[in-house]
Amino acid sequence: MFLLNNNALHRRPLDPIDAETLGTAGADTVERFLAHRDNHLATPLHAFPALAGELGLGAIHIKDEGFRLGLGSFKALGGAYAVFRLVLEEAERRLGRPVDVADLDRPDVRAVAAGMTVACATDGNHGRSVAQGAQLVGAKAAIFVHAGVSEERIAAIARYGAEIIRVDGNYDDSVRQAAEVSAEKGWTVVSDTSWPGYERIPGLVMQGYTAIVREALRQLPQPPTHVFVQAGVGGIAAAVAGHLAIVLGEARPTFIVVEPARAACVVAAARAGRVVKVAHDQPTVMAMLECYEASPVAWRVLARVADAFMTVDEDEAVAVMRRLARPAGGDPAIVSGESGGVGLAGLIRAVTDNSAALGLDGQSRVLLINTEGATDPHRYTELVGQSPADVLAGKVPVGALS
């Protein structure tokens, strides 16, 4: 499936609230918060000249979020950041004085945090970020996990002291239950998807992701001409596309959203011109992207600043995991989880099927984001045929040279 953005809002300015959330001032705030994280480092940006030559492109760069804040995914930037912001706002209200990120370890601020419970639904990575953020500030966390979340991912969340609440059904079912239970118990929902009347906190989560774009633009030798980013509910895609549109203006790159064919809720929104729920059929191997209804806030941004929408199949996602683990021509190896390399899968498909429509040629400079490392190491090893450690160590699997 490939669809150019023919929505009436395409290339119109962002809504003022979204421009404020995803703009320069918001990104400045994110960087100020990150400076207070003990393990914050900019994630690496890798050049892939051999792959670019093979695909007939000028350059390919991949921003590798597998190293982000010890959580192995870009989600580390969103959930924890939103938790920090919400705790500080509540402390400011209760204490009656200004409170900033430097005050998070003050006893009076931690006493406020100790009385708060933050909650969310997750496919795995967002829940880890919320749980980690809660642990760091001294709040409690309740994380709702649906039937498709692997035991390894659940254990990784529980390690941060979160209460795990299991939900029958899929991600969208867990979102609903998290909202209902939290309303009953007075918990604060820190969701990465939005719904009518609930937009500010998902906006804060998206704001956290702007750090990826800001780092990448500093690391790149030239701004990209094309950006392919994968989508679940659309938050990361909207954050990247929105920030690029604000800081680069008319020079912004062509932006393509990539989804699993089995869970293409953003494509469905693009086709309908509004958020719609797609049917749940077979689960997708791209577990972190298995969402069946786009976030309205994310769609509001993408309707304006995404240029095309496309899907990839199951085998394409697994093929890029293996390709990144065993690159050709001296390109670097990257550990990419089931959902991490979906943007690359989209690029490979687009070069074959849609290069003219997207203006992909020998002058194109493409930016991709590896959104997760091996957040489920056992599943990664099953799919790739190598452990994450062996990939990073450059070990060649048995039979690969035969």
Largest sheet: 7 strands, mixed
CATH class of the largest domain: Alpha Beta
Report the structural category: alpha/beta
Average residue-wise pLDDT: 95
Poorly predicted sequence stretches spanning 5 or more consecutive residues = none
GO molecular function: diaminopropionate ammonia-lyase activity; pyridoxal phosphate binding
EC number: 4.3.1.15
Protein name: Diaminopropionate ammonia-lyase
Cofactor: pyridoxal 5'-phosphate
Distinctive features:
Diaminopropionate ammonia-lyase, lyase, 11 strands, DiNH2opropionate_NH3_lyase, seven-stranded mixed beta sheet, 2 domains
Could you characterize what this model shows?
Keywords: Lyase, Pyridoxal phosphate. Its cofactor is pyridoxal 5'-phosphate. Its EC number is 4.3.1.15. This is Diaminopropionate ammonia-lyase. This protein is of the alpha/beta class. The protein has 2 domains: about 260 residues, Rossmann fold (3-Layer(aba) Sandwich); about 110 residues, 3-Layer(aba) Sandwich (Rossmann fold), CATH 3.40.50. Helices cover about 45% and strands about 15% of the residues. The chain is built from 17 helices and 11 strands. The strands form 2 sheets. It has a 7-stranded mixed β-sheet, with helices on both faces. Strands 6-5-4-7 form a 4-stranded parallel β-sheet, sandwiched between helices. Helix 4 packs across helix 5 and helix 4 packs parallel to helix 6. It is globular. The mean pLDDT is about 95.
